[in-house]
Write a structure and sequence with these properties.
The complex is a heterodimer of chains A (262) and B (361). Helix content of chain A is 38%, strand content 18%. Chain A is an alpha/beta fold and 262 residues long. The model of chain A has no long low-confidence stretch (mean pLDDT 96). Chain B is α/β, with parallel strands linked by helices and 361 residues long. Chain B folds into two domains: 190 residues, Rossmann fold (3-Layer(aba) Sandwich); 113 residues, Rossmann fold (3-Layer(aba) Sandwich), CATH 3.40.50.920. The longest helix of chain B has 21 residues. Classes of the chains: A alpha/beta (262), B alpha/beta (361).
């Protein structure tokens, strides 16, 4: 009996999964175990599945995903810190038939860009915001974020976040859900295969809303880990996330088709 | 003959914005330029030309809307006044770095800080030397009449798109608020989406059928690449300095002394030239129309032709005077005169300043 070689296995009829062509071949700059890469992939898969790669414009933030445009194989603009929703507002209004999205982290979206976030949501801009919340500033080296949990240690809250001194963690997603301009608001995660599948469904729904010209903005938060910033192994970071982040930032839909859930 | 109307400078600007085939205006109210957004909202150009008009939540948002819109290949503009323009400096730096053509209008008021709402020219440094962080330039046009508030809009757009560079119309509260007659240019139709795609291959509006995609960014983490990009920008700026200088000379042919002034100061200085000529003093007026690129060579030629002194007349503590001095390079006397904080100097004050600071000693 002859041995089975790789060339015998890699055949079109055996294909069960392949990387979307809307991810470039550039090596991801993210730490192993980080949720950014998975979330990038999900967005690109959704755009490929919708057949909209030639009509999509993405806006990258400042933060760990500042180089998102190197990985997402579509037309993209790189915004100043926090300003992505302003860029996207103009692109979508000037190209109403295009698919437009921003990809932002917690510092970008919920601290320096709070005004741009709130007002784009409140105006009901018809684009998608994908918001990665890992409770820390990853790229600058692990400083406190607006979403850092109470008691959580970071390099600028080395004894833990003390709300009296540093204010409270901001639930910006619950906040934007209250605004009449948001149409779909959900919180997801990507730490397990089942979570990834749910997150993809949510991202797909968000983009489908835009495609359907739904009256308002679709907002997808992805709670993610930052194992290097949290100083944990990827596995420990995911466990810590489930035990500590999820109780404060519960996973699930908050607003669907313009109606608050529950 | 085009249509002649009696209008405020700000209204003429707004009307010209619609006529120039603008795709989007994004702005935030601030005195003394709020008439621009008011006029646009009242005109409802979205019903006629299809132009988008949006009141943003801040000047920070406005300028970043211009990044997005201009970056998608559309003709976009914002207007504001000094404090608002300060807020836009971050965005302008990114826009210059990413080489996005946009138009920004500053109807200058007195500063620093909240200052007042009267006309001033104290934003010259901010406009012509960069303003935000990094080595970059804006193409700066300075209107001195309501007519030029209208005429410079298409000119500024052409320059912005020709060089993929932000352009600024630097006006002041007097030009913005005063009423004059203005004759409008024929409306220019907006480009179709197809035309935008055909003309601007760099614009991000959906990647090409051949798979080619565009990225607009001001970031490059590799210092060598960023140095190369900076050299490319500097080369572009040198070309603009060579080709795009605009100015007006009034009675300079036989002038022994020259007043250098733009905007409202140029109007006052023109009267001062008449008063000085009546006294038998041979004075001319050089009015830079582009503040950057600055008419350096014109001034150098004037020195060679025997001009004995220059007075830079500005409603500031002396900003443009530095560029006049650089051009003159110590060969003849250069001084500054101007009132500050929103006060406009009188022609008589300019006459006295020339006599005392340049001729007298």
């Amino acid at each position: 009996m002859s041995e089975i070689a790789l060339k015998d296995i890699i055949k079109p009829e055996n294909l069960v999964y392949q990387k979307t062509r809307l991810m470039t071949d550039k090596e991801l700059s993210y730490c192993p175990g980080c949720g950014h890469g998975t979330t990038h992939r999900l967005i690109m898969e959704v755009i490929e599945e919708m057949g909209k790669e030639h009509e999509t414009v993405g806006v990258a933030p400042v933060g760990c995903s500042v180089l998102a445009y190197e990985f997402m194989n579509i037309d993209m603009q790189e915004a100043a810190h926090g300003r992505a929703p302003a860029l996207a507002t103009a692109i979508k209004r000037l190209w109403p038939d295009n698919i437009v999205f921003t990809y932002q982290g917690d510092g970008d979206l919920a601290a320096i860009g709070t005004a741009e976030t709130i007002h784009a949501c409140n105006r009901g801009e018809k684009f998608v915001i994908v918001f990665i919340n890992n409770g820390i500033y990853g790229m600058t080296g692990g400083q406190m974020a607006p979403t850092t949990l109470e008691g959580m240690k970071t390099s600028t809250s080395p004894y833990g976040r003390d709300p009296e001194l540093m204010g409270h963690p901001l639930k910006i997603t619950e906040l934007v859900a209250q605004l009449p301009g948001t149409y779909y608001v959900t919180r997801q995660s990507v730490e397990t295969p089942s979570a990834v599948r749910k997150a993809k469904r949510a991202i797909k729904k968000a983009f489908q809303n835009q495609l359907n010209n739904a009256p308002g903005l679709s907002f997808v938060e992805v709670v993610s880990n930052c194992n290097s910033g949290w100083k944990m192994t990827p596995v420990d970071a995911n466990n810590w996330m489930e035990e500590n982040m999820f109780p404060f930032y519960p996973i699930g839909d908050i607003k669907v088709d313009g109606q608050l859930v529950k | 003959m085009g249509e002649i109307k009696l209008m405020k400078g700000n209204e003429a600007l707004a009307e010209a914005i619609i006529r120039a085939g603008t795709d989007g205006y994004f702005g935030y109210p601030i005195t003394p330029q709020s008439e621009v957004l008011e006029y646009l909202m009242a005109s409802k150009p979205w019903e006629t030309t299809g132009m988008v008009v949006l009141q943003a939540e801040s000047e920070v948002a406005s300028i970043n809307m211009l990044y997005g819109g201009g970056g998608s290949g559309k003709k976009v503009v914002t207007s504001s006044s000094s404090p608002g323009i300060s807020l836009m400096q971050e965005g302008l730096s990114y826009i210059a770095g990413a080489e996005i053509p946009i138009l920004i209008v500053n109807v200058v008021r007195g500063g620093p800080g909240l200052g007042d709402i009267q006309p001033a020219q104290s934003d010259y440094f901010q406009s012509t030397k960069g303003g935000g962080h990094g080595d970059y330039r804006l193409i700066v046009l300075a209107p001195s009449s309501v007519q030029e508030m209208a005429d410079f809009v298409p000119v500024a757009y052409d320059l912005a798109f020709k060089y993929r560079n932000p352009a600024m119309i630097l006006s002041d509260g007097a030009i913005g608020q005063m009423m004059e007659k203005v004759e409008f240019f024929e409306p220019v139709p907006r480009l179709s989406d197809k035309e935008v795609k055909a003309r601007y291959s760099w614009a991000t509006n959906g990647k090409l059928k051949n798979g080619e995609r565009r990225i607009l960014t001001s970031l490059d983490l590799d210092p060598q690449k960023l140095e190369d990009h900076n050299h490319h920008l500097q080369e572009k700026y040198r070309e603009i300095e060579e080709k795009e200088v605009r100015y007006e000379e009034l009675q300079c042919d036989d002038a022994e002394y020259v007043l250098v002034a733009y905007g409202t100061s140029a109007r006052v200085s023109l009267k001062a030239v008449k008063l000085l000529r009546d006294k038998g003093i041979k004075v001319g007026l050089l009015r830079p129309i582009t503040l950057w690129p600055f008419p350096t060579k014109t001034i150098q030629n004037m020195v060679e032709q025997g001009v004995k002194g220059f007075l830079s007349v500005e409603m500031s503590a002396g900003q443009m005077v530095e560029d006049v001095r650089l051009a003159v390079n110590g060969k003849v006397k250069v001084e500054h005169f101007g009132r500050l904080g929103g006060v406009i100097h009188s022609p008589e004050e300019v006459v006295e300043a020339l006599e005392q600071k340049i001729i007298g000693e």
